[in-house]
Amino acid sequence: MVELLGVLLAGCVAGLAWLAWRLARAVRRLLPGPRPLRAAPIRLARHRLRHADQRAAELTAEIERLRVALRAARSAPKPAPAGRDRFQEAKRAFALRFHPDRITARAAERMVRIAMFKEHWAELRRIERE
Question: What 8-state DSSP symbol labels residue 38?
Answer without folding.
Answer: P
